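Holo model, adenosine-5'-diphosphate. Inputs:
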Amino acid sequence: MSAHPVLVVMGVSGSGKSTVAALLAGQLGWDYLEGDDLHPAENVAKMSAGIPLTDEDRWPWLDQIAQWISDHAASEMPGVVTCSALKKIYRDRLRLPNVIFVYLSGSKAEISQRLSARHGHFMPTALLDSQFAALQPPSEDEHALLVNISHSPAQEAAEIIQRLGLGAH
Ligand SMILES: Nc1ncnc2c1ncn2[C@@H]1O[C@H](COP(=O)(O)OP(=O)(O)O)[C@@H](O)[C@H]1O
Ligand SMILES: O=C(O)[C@H](O)[C@@H](O)[C@H](O)[C@H](O)COP(=O)(O)O
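Output:
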């Protein structure tokens, strides 16, 4: 593992990326980027209207996240960033040597329930089907850390810190 890793917390909308990543960054004292904040207004408008993003919509956004990761590598700073990173080609774009993917995995039923209870967010629950259709869970050779989302956010953050051996830093 890089001495200054960047954790990319990934998964479909509603899997808990923002909640868990904010806890992680706070506990580790690392820089934090909410990847959704880098979506251009057109992407947000599309998703708000219930239209799934295409690869073309996502590339410029992924490039910006990749830039954040590479800036952190260059300045030897660890960090935590949220990014759905649903497809392998997207992760390949982000896969710098300092990156560790943390994949929040759960069933559509469980995530749908959480999205229905989430308010004040642009992403409609109706887009969950297309999120799962696009999702290519990381394969073994991607060495992602798979985390089951049925635990509490605090338990998930503690599990990630423990499994990556970050507690002693
Ligand atoms: N482990 C968890 N257990 C219960 N609820 C959760 C958990 N993680 C997240 N949530 C809730 O589920 C919703 C989606 O989480 P969020 O962090 O916004 O997901 P994402 O960033 O992946 O879209 C939020 O309302 C959040 O409070
Ligand atoms: O690639 C995508 O289709 C989007 O990035 C999507 O996966 C993401 O989830 C949205 O930005 C909504 O934001 P939340 O993940 O916070 O729901």
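The chain has a mean pLDDT of 96. The CA atoms of residues 77 and 132 lie 32 Å apart.
Archived with the compound record.
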